[in-house]
Write a structure and sequence with these properties.
Elements (H helix, E strand, L loop, with lengths): L8 E11 L5 E13 L5 E14 L9 H10 L4 H9 L26 H7 L4 H15 L5 H5 L2 H14 L4 H15 L5 H6 L2 H26 L4 H29 L3 H9 L2 H8 L5 H14 L3 H9 L2 H6 L7 H14 L3 H9 L2 H7 L7 H13 L1 H4 L7 H11 L7 H10 L3 H8 L3 H12 L2 H11 L13 H5 L8 H12 L8 H7 L2 H8 L7 H14 L3 H9 L2 H11 L4 H16 L1 H10 L2 H8 L5 H17 L1 H28 L83
Antiparallel strand pairs: 1-2, 2-3
Helix pairs in contact: 3-4, 3-6, 4-7, 6-7, 7-10, 9-10, 9-12, 10-13, 12-13, 13-16, 16-19, 19-22, 21-22, 22-25, 24-25, 25-27, 27-30, 30-33, 31-34, 32-33, 33-34, 33-36, 35-36, 36-37
Protein name: Kinesin-associated protein 3
Pfam families: KAP
GO molecular function, one term: kinesin binding
């Protein structure tokens, strides 16, 4: 017998079962029977060998009933928890294993001992090469034979040579030989031999060539269909079927090789993404499952994702949503989820009409989770929040929230609701019927911070939704306690702070729920997280719109606490803006104006901030200082002097820069780009440029002053129907539509 003979049959027979004499273990006895086939395929030689396996059981004791234990292990079922997890998390979808293609099956059965005969056929004509490679494929499809074939370098070398030379002459031959190497590529330890014969690079060439050939077929078919419609169509479908078999086996081999990221990078350099996206035009579902799986694997890398963005991948995928093939739909959604992390590709998804399609999938139990996550990513963009109004998304989301009952609501569901509630029209849809009542009831009962964050977003919008919150002011105020979790208090306090409702009696709320001590205590720097302290400041600004509330807060000593906080948070524009707004409210009311002007240093801080870099802070300062200057002559002169000093410095800087510029022939030019720095009064300006601050006693609007619009309305005018509390230090209210410039 030759030394390199291999066991081709292996049979294991179970034997007796014993308890280990010294350890807590079971001993299983078994018998292995190995057989070697003769040259004709019959039994030639057999050998039996006994063995044993030790199975350790930690809970085994002298009183353990071994037979009962074994019976339990054999018949046990998965626990309810495991079953629930299996239902919730489906296994990752993979392409179906390749089955024999048309033309590969032969009437004869291949034998491992006749490989040399099959190799000789590879040196004959195309029909003989197809027969020889098909017989070798029969052997390669049995994993037990792969190692034997691996050591037969003559066979692999001949197959690689034939593929390299003849793949363009016969689609069947190319398909069979690539299938043989695919069998090797299914096991990571055999990837080396596939790479050695450069089969991966050859498959890339095959795929590229076949896609070009398909384009030629389409043009030819279109031309011939005018002459012989039926005949050209039948011929095309026959060619297409064979080509798709070749594409499928080639791409599957490349997918297996792409386990190695270095190999994947080589594929990327040869435009694998472009080739795969081109194949998405096909209709064969099994081929599409394979291609989408490949793209999904590639999409986790930034470079591949960028390549997909350049070749209109989203447009090709849009036609697959929805589809009847469950695996294909699942894979397509997961690929779209990977791509949806890119803002440009999210925009493309909306552009190609995926938003209503994804919304429709919320009713499908199998697709709901992935569709929900994609919709969440789309809802992040302010551009697209308003588009959800024109779909059935919000009613479905509200129904899903209602169906959860008292169970913990999924994070994805609440997250998308939070994002959508930041849009005014979405908020109105959410509040329709008893929507807000249901949300508030559940949030207060379960103390769900995410649900309250959604309610907080709804409360920020002016219009019909805000008055609805009056019924829940007491419930929210009752949650503002030191004993509650900070995160929960933050959301409840933020919701209350958004309720700038003129008819609301804030004095009664503050007294009944004893909120003033809590608010004052939380103003101390580092007394809580910055987010909570900021909400306290905003809340004080909101309630200070009421005269009685402003007086109550001023008497409680909150203003010195705010000044201390201003010193501690002077680098944070958001804190500064909201604290200055509280000062504005205090000087606006007669009852608290004297306290601010005479008993605190607030005006001095406002003068320092009147030329702040932040436009919103400057705006609030200007309004506040205008009121102070009107009611207190001494502070009015100081404010006037500071404004003059600031303008004068800017004037001098401009003059010096002009003098330094030798290319400028004249100091004063008609196209001066800083006309706001030139003072004028009825066209008279002293020649020496020296102007006393008293010249501007009428407080004419200048750079840095409040410029009133033509209709006389003021951003912070308390007499207007909508009080002007700044939503943010950055000048953007959440319910405004931002401007986006599309290139």
């Amino acid at each position: 017998m030759q030394d390199d003979a291999r066991y081709l049959k292996r049979k294991v027979t179970a034997g007796s079962l014993d308890v280990h004499p010294t350890e807590k273990a079971l001993v299983v006895h078994y018998e292995v029977e190995a057989s070697i086939l003769a040259e004709g395929g019959g039994h030639m030689l057999g050998e039996r060998k006994e063995g044993q396996k030790i199975i350790r059981v930690k809970s085994l004791s002298p009183s353990t009933d071994v037979e009962q234990l074994l019976y339990y292990l054999q018949n046990r079922k998965s626990s309810p928890v495991e079953g629930k997890m299996e239902k919730k998390e489906k296994r990752p979808v993979k392409p179906r294993e390749l089955t024999p293609f048309d033309g590969m099956e032969l009437n004869e059965e291949a034998s491992i001992t006749r490989v040399d005969e099959y190799i000789e056929l590879l040196y004959e004509g195309i029909p003989e090469k197809i027969r020889g490679s098909a017989l070798i494929l029969q052997l390669a499809r049995n994993p037990d034979n792969l190692e034997e074939l691996l050591h037969n370098e003559a066979a692999l070398g001949a197959l690689a040579r034939v593929l390299r030379e003849d793949w363009k002459q016969s689609v069947e031959l190319a398909t069979i030989i690539i299938y043989i190497f695919f069998c090797f590529s299914s096991f990571s330890q055999f990837h080396g031999v596939v790479s050695h014969y450069k089969i991966g690079a050859l498959c890339m060439s095959v795929v590229e060539h076949e896609l070009k050939r398909h384009d030629v077929w389409l043009s030819t078919r279109e031309r011939l269909s005018k002459k012989r419609p039926g005949q050209s169509c039948r011929k095309y479908h026959g060619l297409l079927s064979k080509q798709e078999q070749l594409l499928r086996v080639s791409l599957y081999l490349l997918l297996n090789l792409a386990e190695d990221t270095r190999t994947e990078l080589k594929m990327r350099n040869k435009n694998i993404v472009g080739l795969l996206v081109k194949v998405l035009e096909r209709d064969d579902e099994e081929l599409l499952v394979l291609v989408v799986s490949f793209l999904k694997k590639l999409s986790i890398f930034l470079e591949n994702k960028n390549d997909m963005a350049e070749v209109d991948t989203v447009e090709r995928l849009a036609r697959l949503v929805p589809c009847d093939h469950d695996d294909l739909l699942n894979l397509t959604l997961r690929l779209l989820l990977n791509l949806s992390f890119d803002s440009g590709l999210r925009a493309k998804m909306v552009e190609v009409g995926l938003l209503p399609k994804l919304t429709a999938l919320l009713g499908d139990e199998n697709s709901r989770q992935v569709a929900l996550r994609i919709l969440y990513h789309i809802s992040i963009d302010d551009r697209f929040k308003g588009m959800f109004v024109y779909t059935d998304c919000i009613p479905q989301l509200m129904q899903m929230l209602y169906e959860h009952g008292e169970e913990d609501t999924e994070a994805e569901l609440l997250s998308i609701c939070i994002n959508l509630a930041a849009n005014k029209r979405n908020a109105q849809l959410i509040c329709e019927g008893n929507g807000l009542k249901m949300l508030m009831k559940r949030a207060l009962k379960m103390k769900d911070c995410l649900l309250m964050k959604m309610i907080r977003n709804i409360s920020q919008h002016d219009g019909a939704t805000k008055p609805v919150f009056i019924d829940y002011v007491g419930d929210l105020a009752a949650e503002i306690r030191a004993e509650e979790e900070e995160e929960w208090v933050l959301e409840c306090l933020g919701t209350l702070a958004n309720l700038t409702i003129p008819d609301l009696d804030w004095e009664l709320v503050l007294k009944e729920y004893n909120l003033v001590p809590y608010l004052k205590d939380r103003l101390k720097p580092a007394s809580a997280e910055d987010d909570l302290i900021l909400e306290v400041v905003i809340m004080i600004g909101t309630v200070s719109m009421d005269d009685a509330c402003a007086a109550m807060l001023a008497k409680s000593g909150i203003i010195p606490a705010l000044i201390e906080l201003l010193n501690a948070q002077q680098e944070d524009d958001e804190f500064v803006c909201q604290i200055v707004y509280v000062f504005y409210q205090m000087v606006f009311h007669q009852a608290t104006r004297d306290v601010i002007i005479k008993d605190t240093q607030a005006p001095a801080y406002l003068i320092d901030l009147m030329h702040d870099k932040n436009a919103e802070i400057r705006k609030v300062c200007d309004n506040t200082l205008d009121i102070i200057a009107e009611y207190d002559e001494e502070w009015g002169r100081k404010i006037q002097s500071e404004k003059f000093r600031f303008h004068n410095n800017q004037w001098l800087e401009m003059v010096e820069s002009r003098q330094a510029d030798e290319s400028e022939p004249y100091l004063y030019d008609n196209d001066n780009d800083r006309t706001d720095l030139f003072y004028s009064a009825d066209g008279i300006t002293p020649a020496d440029g020296s102007v006393s601050p008293d010249f501007f006693n009428d407080l004419q609007p200048q750079n840095g002053d409040m410029h009133h619009t033509g209709d006389g309305s003021d951003v912070f005018d308390q007499t207007s129907s909508s009080p002007g509390r700044p939503a943010t230090a950055y000048g953007f209210r959440p319910d405004e539509q931002p401007f986006y410039q599309y290139s």
